[in-house]
Amino acid sequence: MFPTLLILELSLIPGFRLGQPAGAYGLGNYLEIFQPVYFQVVLRSLFFAVGSTLLCLLLGFPVAYWIAIKAPRRWRNLLLVSFILPLWTSSLLRAYAWITILRPSGLLNSLLGVFGLPGQDWLNRSPAVFIGMAYSFLPYMVLILYASLERLDRRLLEAAADLGATPQQSFWKITVPQTLPGIAAGGLLVFIASLGDFVVPELLGGASSMTVSRLIYNQFLGATRNWGFGSSLSMILILAVSIAIALLLKYGDRSSAQS
Q1: In the chain, is it the N or the C terminus that has fewer CB atoms within a 10 Å radius of its CB?
Q2: How far is Cα 137 from Cα 117, in angstroms, rounded to an integer?
Q3: What pLDDT, in 10s, does the model give residues 146-176?
């Protein structure tokens, strides 16, 4: 709590720099965030977080559905463990592995060349950031969705089939509504992790993919050393994550109550 209060105080001192006398309190640091160059960084961070969340949901729901509904029960635990194996390694190592895969002379372009397809220049661009984030946070989404789908009342699916409902109708009117708390909880968890991620955008996105986390790092440890502005950015990030956590706890409790 004390470090957060200290950051809050520094954020209210416009232009505060280490070793210089502090000025009067004000909201200048927060107003500086709305300058186009900094506001663009904030929007880019939100873009990466929202896009990664949607990508993890689109990829994770079919996987979780297959493990929870279609796969034999005796294999489910093994499938889950094998799917979350990447979490046992460092996020830094995973990012460097993707650099090896996505670089111009990497594995991806080598495989594309074998099939006569044109090479892709994704490294140090937004696609590489989305790939890295989805790979890092997809297991979290799958685990939460699996827990929600495992509690699905399959008697309703059987009743819908007996009444003539198509699989698509059963999915949208029965499966999705029952798993909506899990979808919301998984989405919020991935959003929180993506919004504060530093490693993936820095290593896979390059200079053109600066996020709020990197900007905060520059203010505290870079050449700028504007601790006041860095503190205001930190408080904005803390506020956004706190709101997301509050929503996560709300939907998590609702999911638990339904089960």
Answers
A1: N
A2: 29
A3: 988 888 888 888 888 888 888 888 888 888 8
Q: Report the largest interatomic distance among the alpha carbons of the chain, rounded to a whole angstrom.
A: 76
Q: Quickly state the pLDDT bin for 61 (edges 50, 70, 90).
A: very high
Q: Which residues in 164-175 are b (16+ Cβ under 10 Å) and which e?
A: ebeeeebeeebb
Q: Is 154 exposed, middle or buried (0-12, 13-18, 19+ CB in 10 A)?
A: exposed
Structure tokens at 140: 């979290």
Contacts of 132 (CB under 8 A, 6+ apart): 94, 95, 98, 200, 203, 204
Question: Which neighbouring-strand residues pair with 17?
Answer: 226
Angle at 135 between CA 131 and CA 141, to 5 degrees: 120
Which amino acid is present at 71? A
pLDDT at 256: 46
End-to-end CA distance of the chain: 34
Cβ partners under 8 Å of residue 104, min gap 6: 119, 121, 123
pTM: predicted TM-score of the whole model, two decimal places: 0.86
Name the amino acid, one letter, at 14. P
Q: 196: buried, middle or exposed (CB in 10 Å: 19+, 13-18, 0-12)?
A: middle
